[in-house]
Amino acid sequence: MRYLELCTIEHAKEVVKTLLNELSTEEVSLFELPGRILAEDIVSNVDVPPFDRSRMDGYAVRAKDTYEAEEDKPVTLEIIDKIRAGGNSDLEILSGQCMEIATGAPLPKGADAVVMVEFAEIEENSVKLYKAVSPHENIQPCGNDIMVGELIMRKNTVVSPRDIGAISAVGKNKLNVFKNPSIGLLSTGNELISPEEELGPYKIYDVNTYTIASSILEKGWNFNFYGIVKDNKEDLMDKLKKAMNEDVILLSGGTSAGVGDLTSTAIEELGGEILVHGIKIKPGKPTIIGRIGKKLVVGLPGYPTSCLTIFDVLFNEKGKTMRAQVYNRYMSAKGREEYLPVSIIRGKDGYGAYPVLKGSEAITSLTYADGYIIIPENREIVEDEMFDVHMFGDIRIGLNIIGSHCVGIDRILRKGQILARTVNTGSLGGIMAVKRNEADIAGIHLLDNNGEYNISYLKKYNVTDSVLVRGYVREQGFMFKKELGIESMEDLIEKIRYYKIINRNKGSGTRILFDKFLKENDIDKNSINGYDIEAKTHSAVGAAVSMGKAQIGLGISTISDHYDLEFIPIADENYDLLIPKEKLYDEDIIKFIETLKNEELPFKKSKDTGKIIYGC
């Protein structure tokens, strides 16, 4: 048997994926969504939660009314109302007043904190508080979990049960997915008989059909069995013609010596073409992949283990448990066995498991978690040790890109077809992630008082064994709707105190730039309405302004253009990439940098784009 050209398994998987992605799409409900592949990005149109709400059962208060509260000297406040989850109060809390409030209930007017019920003692229409609270304590702010404009899931992502909560939380009931392929199954071999027949001399029962059929059903797909094919071209072509109403045709045992040539010949004589004939993999070297029109035809090996392995490699990626190192210290609750959700990243010496600590009330805790580790009830501290990670579902480990959000990163990943997990922590968060060996790439754009970007911050935070690669130049500025009537930067500076602003998260380069702008123009940040309202991405800022959640936001010009907003530039900034030296020769890092240099991006590039501009 001849192999025209052995290909890599990555190429074979890409061929299959490309043909499956040519299938049409359909709209399904949330109940039908798990296991399906998204045919669209999911972007939130609402804030989650949509209002400021209490994290605890307790009392909604003005924080300053509690400052003198102590265990032996409580503060007494008047209870003027009671709010349950799903309810509300029209009253406003004034000095010396409070309201009883349930977990999840909306915060009433005038309140800025919640005292837990454990630190309170009711006396008729008043309550004694034995603990002071600070502003925003025990409150989950509006949009704290998910903000308007935030990307929840990307197109081509397989939806798992843990993703459903985040999708339903943003009010998405029906979504477009790629249609599940219909599968036609054929088994080839003169020696094969059905299990319902009596075993005759030199015959064996068909195993592969039922093994593959079970795997197909496990994926939620449907199949039809077109019978056992004898080792002759006429029978094979006749069965293939009958299966042509399916999206995918699988032949088990259709790759052995002689039969493999029959399979490739039959495909070609039916007007098809051979895309792969032989893969650099053991087992499974003789695998055949072809197409007849838009129909995908795959010839799988005949040995059951080889057959199932190749099917799994080409059509499925399984993950049950894996070993991973928990690096960071985690304090567990003594006396209880804890199932701690973790996110898996590729670390310096293997795989790392990082606890997902967004809070149990945050729906996206499960979205970010790949699985969980089990901490025994007699353990209080977990640090720098190996654990079995119990996987929620399939996992694919790619690059870890942690730092400042930029649509340019998404463009590079998409153009380069690079698998990656992006975590938007802001520039300083990216620097710290590189120092902890958590990030493969950190996008940063930090401006110091001397007008220099990024390098001084690497020195300030003692970053070592890393390089700074020149990225591109982004135009930062203020975005707002045309009807706001702002004509110039001078006009904006004069009026900014009178408008509602949306800020970026702490540690982001954009927030640092905004703080610098306020300082240079002698504007007190406490006078800015919305200074403490944070968005995690530029897209979320643009969406908030476009939808009227805020009147002015600071972000990059590409987002302003996307939302058709007015834009007043404030600065051109260098968005650069901090990369650990040991990662520079990683295949995906090389592909990322090459894509950065060669692909068209919505930002200006310099002659140094993609080059190392600083080492430490």
Automatic annotation (TrEMBL):
PROSITE patterns: MOCF_BIOSYNTHESIS_2. It comes from the Archaea. InterPro entries: MoaB/Mog-like_dom_sf, MoaB/Mog_dom, MoCF_biosynth_CS, MoeA-like, MoeA_C_domain_IV, MoeA_C_domain_IV_sf, MoeA_linker/N, MoeA_linker/N_sf. Keywords: Molybdenum cofactor biosynthesis. Residues 184-321 form the MoaB/Mog domain. One of its GO terms (biological process) is Mo-molybdopterin cofactor biosynthetic process. Pathway: Cofactor biosynthesis; molybdopterin biosynthesis. Pfam families: MoCF_biosynth, MoeA_C, MoeA_N, PBP_like. PANTHER family: GEPHYRIN, MOLYBDOPTERIN BIOSYNTHESIS PROTEIN. This is Molybdopterin molybdochelatase.
